[in-house]
Amino acid sequence: MAWIYLLIAAVFEVVFALGTNATNGFTELWPSVLTIVAASGGIFFLSLALKTLDVGVGYTVWTGIGSVGTVVFGTVLFDEHMNGWKALAFLLIIGGVLGLKLADKFTTTTAAQA
Description:
By secondary structure, the protein is an all-alpha fold. The chain has one domain (about 1-114). It is about 85% helix and about 0% strand. The chain is built from 4 helices and no strands. It has helices at about 1-20, 30-50, 55-75, 85-114. Helix 1 (about 1-20) packs antiparallel against helix 2 (about 30-50), helix 1 (about 1-20) crosses helix 3 (about 55-75) and helix 3 (about 55-75) packs antiparallel against helix 4 (about 85-114). The chain is flat, with a radius of gyration of 16 Å.
C-alpha cells in the first residue's frame, strides 16, 4: 500500500509544480488554491508512504516521479523545450526510481527471511 500512497503523492507533486507555474506569484486565486491543496495532498500521502518505506527511498522516488511528470506535462501543456540531453537525464531518473523500488523490494524480502 505504501507504493500506492507514494504514487498518489507524486501525482499531487506534479499538480503542485504545474500549479505553481500558473499562480503568477500567488496572485491568481484559483491556481493558488489548487497549488496549496496539491502541496498538502502530496505531503500527506508521502507521510503515509513513509510509515513503511525508508525516507531516503520514498522521498527520492517522490521527487523523481514528480520531476519527470512535471517535465513531461510542462513540455505538453506549456510548450517547454525538450532535447536529447534532457531526455537522457529523465531516463536516468526513471532508472534510478525503478532501481530504488527493486532495492526496497529486495531489502524487504531479505529482512523477512532473516
